[in-house]
Write the structure tokens for this entry.
Amino acid sequence: MTTSVKALDAEASAGSIHSPRDRVRSHAGMRRPSLPRIALTRVRPLPPSVRRISVLLFWLVAALLLAGCAGLQPKASPDQREAAEINAELGISYLRQNDLIQAERALERAIQFDPRLAMAHLGMASLRERQDLLDPALEHYRKALALDPDDPYVQTNLGDLLCRQGEVAEGRALLEKAAANPSYRARHAALVGAGVCALKAGETEAAERRIREALEIAPRFPDALYEMARLTYQDGRPFQTRAFLSRLTALGVVTPESLLLCYRAEMELGNREDALRCAQRLMRDFTESEEAAELDRLEQDRG
């Protein structure tokens, strides 16, 4: 899963979806009791040791620098802000439909109407991430965070991207901050991200605690089930890997990653017949995937 849409998708998996207009209102600063936003989900680890005052000072400086780079743009009028909100909402809706061309047009208009609308930058960051333009994505995520430092959706998505890029400490801290927000509807997404970051840091026990906590909140969240399957396999527990993959498959979620993991776990358990079933489906349904190529290499190595 990716981008601003990640968090929304995470909410969908937990059965708690709210309308795009609700998210627009929250980012417009109108009413924000439940901190709604779009989750685009992969995030970087931000160190829990960093004090709140340090974080606030850091982003205050970032916000001032951003304003300076933007040429001290005047505050948008109410009409401009409303136009920006509408276009940001449209852009995010197009993103969820995977219509990247229309999404880009709408999000560009939103930023033109109001460069200070955090939600517009979050949507644009998600779009750039979908396009594998990670440097521009990171730039827009940071702009969104500078404009709205306490937005858990921004924290989650930026943290996820940072973690995937190897900035584990910063990403993890952002994810932990989002996960600690009791009003955040996609806390489970932040918890999984924090767990993935912890696993990257070699902290298997901490990673498992976080991902299991996510499953307590959202037992049917596919990302949590897959990450637990991956973690248990890496930790030498293939029986548990099989159990988590079974729960994932029962949800109708089958991916190249899950099929390759299924093959590996079943081979580890000595169940070559079941392993071959996973392998055949991988080669049939995802022929051009990296996982199919990896499976081919594994089979060749086995002779």
